[in-house]
Amino acid sequence: MTASADSTPETTPIPGPPRPLPKAPPRRPAPAPTTTGGAGPHDTALAPAPAATVRSADAEPWGRVDEDGTVSVREGDEWREVGQYPDGTPDEALAYFERKYADLASEVALLEARQHGGGASASDLRATARALHAKIDGAAAVGDLARLEERVQALIETLSAASASEAAAARELVDEAVAQRTALVERAEALAARDPKSIQWKQTSADLATLFEEWQSQQQNGPRLPKNVSQQLWKRFRDARAILDKHRREFYAGLDEEHKGVRDRKTRLVERAEALAPKGEDGIPAYRELLDEWKTAGRAGKKVDDALWARFKAAGDALYSARVERETADAEASREKIEAKRELLVHARTIADESDVAKARARLTAIQRTWDEIGRIFPRDKERALDDDLRKIETNVRTREESEWKRNNPETKARANDMTRQLEEAIQKLEDELAAATKSGDKTAIARATEALDARRAWLKAVGG
């Protein structure tokens, strides 16, 4: 069975060890002719020629095929057996191993293209090149294997330098990533080191979650850190999270206990407020006291607080609603009273025209008595406005009474008479001085006497003289 260009022979060629180039087989003399008795002319018989090495004309520089199907490749001055192909022609045998060489050459060309194209890791390409170099060395193929090895070796040297630069850049990236990851750890540890009593847990939990998201992002998108460094940093970050989580649980456990106490206190306040409902408006003072207690009771959590406050407020609204109902009824009942007091005010304002103070007082007293008999008025602001108007009239009468009393008081009269006498004497004296000054034409004395005389006359008028 023979191997075609597109198929592998069923009989796998057997590779063989390298061996020296064979020398040409020695020529042997032709056999001597043999004479047999009774024969005619001499028949000459030639001996069979020795087996010759079969070679392909196209692959002659690099490969050959022996008569037994052994295929060899030339490497320098030696031939190395690469296998056997006993079931095919020499051309088929060489073609098979030339395809093996072509496959290796394609791998070399592809690796060169990847190196020139960029984008691939130099260290990865170098590892591939080294593997390919080992694959070419001693390969069962026919072709210029030495040239392939030279090309691959050149790639290895180029990629080694690039790998060094790549490794340095990678170390810089790793160092930067370690610094960034360390900064996250230190921020987490700073949060964990704070006093649990002063921490705003909602904000702190959000901050820690943000740090963890940044950690995950760096872990997924950043360079891989050395295992020991990564584990140490993660342990620190995890420990900081554990501390914060422990403090948070303790805080909320204490808060729950505190909320329970506040909830119990406020529940009792609600029950006491609801018990005031039968008292109506009269329960408002007690409700206000409960409200003061509520303000100092503390917080029981938003949902619980809102629910309890709704009940507490509803109890107060019922009490104040009773007041509103009563005030509405009082306001309706006060309409006639308001009109009656307004009429009294109209009469009271005429007291100012009464010259006799005693009669003015008598009229005012009668009006005040009727005013009180009419009773309270609602709303209170209207009552205050009417009372203010009446109070002005009362003040006017009281002022007149005080003035009248001062005038009729004996002591006051005596003092007034004495003052009048003194002023009259002073006026008489000043009039004499003015007359003398006028007669003498002394303008300064005239002015001084006139000024003093005017002042004394004004005083006399003031005391009723």
From TrEMBL:
Q: Which UniProt keywords apply?
A: Coiled coil
Q: Which Pfam families does the UniProt record give?
A: DUF349
Annotated region (Disordered), positions in chain: 1-89
Q: Which InterPro entries match?
A: DUF349 (IPR007139)
Q: For bias kind Basic and acidic residues, which ranges apply?
A: 57-67
Q: Where is the composition biased (Pro residues)?
A: 12-32
Coiled-coil annotation reads: 409-440
User: At the top level of its lineage, which domain of life is listed?
Assistant: Bacteria
Q: What is this protein called?
A: DUF349 domain-containing protein
Q: State the organism named in the record.
A: Microbacterium rhizomatis
Q: What is the lineage of its organism?
A: Bacteria, Bacillati, Actinomycetota, Actinomycetes, Micrococcales
